[in-house]
Amino acid sequence: MLDKIKLEHILFLDIETVPQEEFFNQMDPEMQTLWEQKTQYQRRDEFSPEEFYDRAGIWAEFGKIVCISVGYFQIKGDIRNFRVTSFFGEEKQLLKDFNNLLNNHFSGPQYVLCGHNIKEFDIPFIARRMIINGVSLSGKLNLFGKKPWEIPHLDTMELWKFGDFKHFTSLKLLSKILGIPTSKDDIDGSQVGEVFYKEKDIDRIVTYCEKDVVAVAQVMLRFRNEELLVQDEILHV
Q1: Which domains does the chain have, with CATH numbers?
Q2: Is residue 166 over pLDDT 90?
Q3: Where is the signal peptide (predicted)?
């Protein structure tokens, strides 16, 4: 099945998210209470709501997107390029820009979105933040009424499961076992909030996000038993 999808018809993506506010006490009292209720099961008695707030970036109701990176193949004859670009800055604007990309260049039925854990995290997070920010959902994100086989999303984590529902494999582990070279100086996903708020280094976050997009594309190539990308084929635009 994967062999029947043209590489040029796949838009690879990854997002980076952070807590909506830098500190717990910057939320209004009602949101603090709602955060306490939302995270009760995860926290149990080990953490107070305030101590747990550094993880707020994984919930769309309490987090926000600071970067969406995308990548796509361009193949002409025997020349193959993988073009990577990112949307970052004010959240509502980056969501609009990403939406415009989908609507203007990847809206056709032949196009699919691809990421690692994209069905459980990236796509729902993007869609929820679009609704919160008053941005109309692209057809590629609006799943209301669609049957499972009509959803145009490929998830490399799901593909790796081969039907094993309890199995979770990180992109980092998958890249390692598939022999995909990755940079050793990447920040960890749990550090993105600190880099954003304390270091104020969005460029570092963009670099990290784009490397994950390339890694997902490399995983897809391995699934298809095709040659991995070499550095000269990767273009940052």
Answers
A1: 2-20+62-236 (3.30.420.10)
A2: no
A3: none
